[in-house]
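Quality-control log, excerpt.
Job 1 of 2 completed; input and output follow.
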Amino acid sequence: MRFTTLVEPLYKMIPAIDVETLPSPEVLYHRRSSEVWSDSYHDQKKEDRESNIPELSLERSQTRRIARTSPFTSRNVTDGNEAWHNILPGHGVVALPESYVKKNNIPDSTATHLYEGDTEPKHIYFIESYHVLHCLRMLRSLYHSMDYGLPKEPYLPPLDHPYHCFDRIRQFIMCNPDYTLVPNIAGHDKSDWTQPNKKCLDWDALRDWAEKYHGNYMDDFALSAKEKEEMVYDEVNIYNNYRKGDGLPVGQL
């Protein structure tokens, strides 16, 4: 079976009333007619775009164990699929009040009055780590279909999006190099991948911060028709489908 046979149907975001998709294929967020786009972001100098999120520390303060296996490595179709399917990358779409954006020198982004009664515009951002998770989750779904010879799920995109995701993950790794030296014991397959004293940034703090400023958005590309029916999915106003949390482990990797 050729790989291309699994990815021919076009990727389609769920439509909503008075909603257009963003012009950039890299940004997975719906645009409404009330949103205002900033033309200045790409014209700003690098030093003018240095932002500060006071609630989030850049210190690697959390001790985490990197295990060789986890629910995410399971070849059991039910367990492995459930672990990956529960990840909600849309948790990384945040809506920051304009006053917060200006106070912390954050670059302008799409601006909208997200909720009725908003006293100031909210600027929409997709946290990069969640963007990479979206890519990884989608690539895993593609590989899983190939590995088990399953029919391609209708929500999976054409080739251009996976190739974008491969390169986005590459760039993310190069921008965030990990200098940990992993011991090699009796060959690659015997390497000690367990690092009990690994120091990490605080993902739980990031999750909580994203929850505080959530953009009322759910990355729904992996929802089946049955799941949408069970959760009473709102096809008209997609912003009513938001669920708390990101589906990732708490206090561990």
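Job 2 of 2 completed; input and output follow.
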Amino acid sequence: MANLTRRTARRLARPSPDAPRDVASALRDINWPRLRAWHAQIDRPDVDRLMHASVEELRNYASTGFMTTPSRLIGTLDRIDKLTANVCVPIEALSLGQDGGFVETKPSPAGFGTSPNGETFADYARLSLLPVVVASLAVILKISHMLLKFYHTRRYSRRSCRVKAELHIGAYVIQGRVTVLGLHGCRFSFVDDDGRALLSVVAESGETHLQIGSIRLPSDTVSLTDNWAAIRFHEALPQKLHTTILERSEERTRMITLPRLTYNVPAKPSEQTESAAPRAGTRSGPALAAQTAAPRTAGSDLSKSGASETGDKDNRALTEGLRQPGRKSSAA
């Protein structure tokens, strides 16, 4: 309607004989109830007054074919455009089959003003962006967690493997296999249920070490599940020794990421820790060095070691100190 009015007002010097009829047809096509409802909603008396004046001028032109002040009518339409720029609803709703907008050179701000319920475009934009922001944060956190796990995997050289091993706890020996090996610990899987049941009773009851062939690794049991136990070494493995152990694997090794470990095995009692400390220092020397295969009774093993290091007197003292935890574990 606004575009038609501008074209008609600018061509009054050479008027078209069909112009009054076109204006009358456009006035009939306007949805007047919808227009009045929109006026009531925006509550702008100045806009209402200007639009009524423009409509009366157009009705007069449609009936008489004469327009009194065409330049003033165009100025009124421009002023209406400025006043309604922030509150204009889609103009297509005001007329049937007509181009929307009051401004001829640029489109109406349809969809960027207020809706019939009062929501603005900014409200819709914020609501639509909220799921995107939440999803983006979730993806970032997930990727960060994966990168952190991959970093720990590389840092500690965790690899899946299948290496035969024995877990020695005092006088007890549990057969099994190392299924995951890192620089600071490993996962020890049991050969049968008896090994798991035994470990649940004697875990950390005496001096503990992992025996892989001739390699003896002083360690502690820190976690126990139905299928495997988490073993932590007293000292980190040298990279060369880590590679040597992996060469014993019965299957191809590969990098592996692990979930966070739950520590559920209580530490050794303080008196056992204090009595085991001098033995560990005397026995192991430079930790994690490859040694000859150890017998399955730690008493005889340390008896031989004590004899070679401190003589018969010190040997009897060390042997007596080792047997004491063994008797406590058996009773348990």
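Post-run check on job 2. Residues 78 and 103 are 7 Å apart (CA to CA).
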